[in-house]
Design goal:
Blueprint lengths: L1 H19 L5 E8 L3 E9 L5 E10 L3 H13 L15 E4 L5 E8 L6 H8 L5 H20 L2 E2 L8 E7 L5 E8 L6 E2 L22 H5 L7 H16 L11 H6 L12 H10 L10 H4 L21 E2 L2 H4 L11
Antiparallel strand pairs: 1-2, 2-3, 3-5, 4-5, 6-9, 7-8, 8-10
Helix pairs in contact: 4-6, 6-8
Length: about 325
Amino acid sequence: MKRKTYRSRERVIREKQSQIVPPEMELVKVLGKGTYGSVELFSHKQNDGSLLYNAVKIMDSENYGSIDQEFRILSELRGCPCIVQLCGNSLVQGTDCNGGKVYKMSMEYAAAGTLTNFIQRNRTKLSDSVIKDFTRMILQGLVSIHSHGYVHCDLKPDNILLFPIYDKETWNCSYELKISDFGISTRAGDKSDCWRIDEPWVGTSIYMSPESVRDGTTVEKTLDLWSLGCIVLEMYTGKRPWLGFDKHVKSLLLDNKAPEIPETVPCDARLFLEKCFARKSEERGTASELLLHPFLIRDEKMGSAAAAGERTGMDSNSRSGHPQELSKLD
């Protein structure tokens, strides 16, 4: 049945591909390469002469199922806040340099790179307000994902993209965060095809929850909330969770351990992290409930203006719209 479905969708792809990739599109550079494909940056001129950039994920025919699933999920999430957006209405079939069949998915380009890039640039210098803003945006994305019945399953800084928003008068920059990479996302309550006995993880081990090791067959929305806790902790410390214990993560989780929260983490953030790291998954609540956690409640004195990230002066290349950062494909 799947093969018939794939062939049917391939015909649609060939019929519609001219709608997605204009003939004047030019390759700018390769943004990242992974085991199953790559992400490349393309540009094309608009009617006013300005350049528009798109990130294009490319996978070979053997991995059609993964990119097709990701495309369908992102299609359902069109217009949702804090979710990377598609450019076009279908996948595009093409060929690689060796003549092999590939499939392409065009998306909006995150000129400021990933949250991983941002953390590495700033180390432990992220302010409490920036971390709260970023956490809030990630949760808003999770609310959208979970409300459509999906679990992301691989939430980590590498899969969170930063889109710069700058003031044209002052060139001060803030950021909008968007969740990307839905290649292994799964319906809540369904079995994951990624789980293996020798690798009992749905996604990336150091961001996975205890139940993903104990159960290993079905996934629930609370898995993403544990991963969120790992990301928030990483923003505070500048270090990956379980650093130095990477090879022992499975046994630590089976022993009901959670990543250590340093004393330097503020009290309200500590309480938020402890909620995310609750051993009983049902005690983590929901993404909507975590948005109302005291850690994320804005100080009324700040007003309603959206901070949306650290504000910094942009360089001349950013002002001209030239892409500055590399996106990463895992």
